[in-house]
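Give me the 3D structure for Fungal lipase-type domain-containing protein.
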Amino acid sequence: MATKAYRNQKTSRKSTHVANSLSNLPHLRIQGSARKSLGNVGFEEKHDTPTESPKEDIADKWRDIHGSSDWNNLLDPLNRLLRREIVKYGEFSQATYDAFDFDSLSEYCGSCKYNRHKLFEKLGLDKHGYNVSKYIYAMSHVEVPRWLEKSRVLENIWSKDSNWMGYVAVSDEKESKRIGRRDIVIAWRGTMAPSEWYEDLQRKLNPIGPHGEAKVEHGFLSIYTSKSDATRYNKSSASEQVMGEVKRLVQFYKEKGEEVSLTITGHSLGGALALLNAYEAASALPGLPISVMSFGAPRVGNIAFRDELHQKGVKILRVVVKQDLVPRMPGIVLNEGLQRFDDITGSLEWVYHHVGVELKVDVRSSPYLKHGFNLLGFHSVETYLHLVDGFHCSGSTFRSEARRDLALVNKACDMLVDELKIPHFWYQSANKGLERNAHGRWVKPKRDSEDIPSPIGEGNTLEPEMQNNLERLEALYGI
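Predicted structure for Fungal lipase-type domain-containing protein (479 residues):
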């Protein structure tokens, strides 16, 4: 989030016009050709079946699953063990949306709804066997779109500068035994809609790294590295917060003699931040196995950025929905496709380039999804996870053994066929967050004290009793 004090760059009229035009697309659907009935797909029968297969021991296979051989012979057909791990990390990414307070009338807009000890329990993700150790906050010094703006209605908000951008989590003893190592996970939040950050793209590439040849999109880099002493939550940048925690965890578990890995995940903008995070982690912690599993991520940097990530040993799996427009940006025209003309164009230091191995899934493969144009639906994390769960190999039909709950697809979009009778955009707080008080009036309830972000920034002095209470809240909230 950026206040006027930080907004030192103006967006062009052209990019603003494009962004405004795109903002109407998420709700636009163009009906395709007539669809066949679901027939014997068996949706109702799935209600009485588990949503997941039993967990399997992957202790001797985890390096292959995390790309040690660049996922050769694991993607087409999609290995069942890899599929389950992709869905797991995708759910960690989805959690950054489900727990985010989007309510512009809330004094906590832009924060996480729950403290770190409750996050996975509240979202039903404690089944994965990970514990959150740290929350990450971010801001930006560049002109940013609506997704980073705070409510203009309330003055007394928890933070006027920062947003909750994700978390660091660690596998517990049982899960570590199953997966063969202690896995540190970083999950980065993306945007509410792709059109909301489009106007911040297509600008100059900024250098990253010691040599200056690798360059990345300046807006992404600003969100990752911005900080200010005038803020409460970003006296240190998102980069400094996350790297401080990762280094602490790696040292702690290595001193215990454990094998450690780092897995970074994110959707949309979160996928871009995941690459910046992986680049920095690989530079600071050489030899640490690092993999990225991103969903619907845009291009981030140039070909030198790609090459340096490869040289550092970072393994990157990009899950892409064929119909999703976001992975085509930035650089819709000026991208890696020009490499075929490298004799003319040279080294392509000035164009964007995707990184890693791609797993592409297709909306048309699912009999449960509408096939009309739906920008928001194509880009939704839940659409991605539904398609991964149903993917067997290119050209095959949707897996009949797919177990993931179909209703999840419509949490924040309208992608499921009407025959399934699942409401669209159904995921919300009961009564949109209002509760009856003792007098029978509908009011916004106050958050539990343990779920309130601490209002005091670093460098403040407090009375001992208040300081103890603050430290308790900070320990719970992970800041």
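The chain is about 30% helix and 15% strand. Let me know if you want a second pass.
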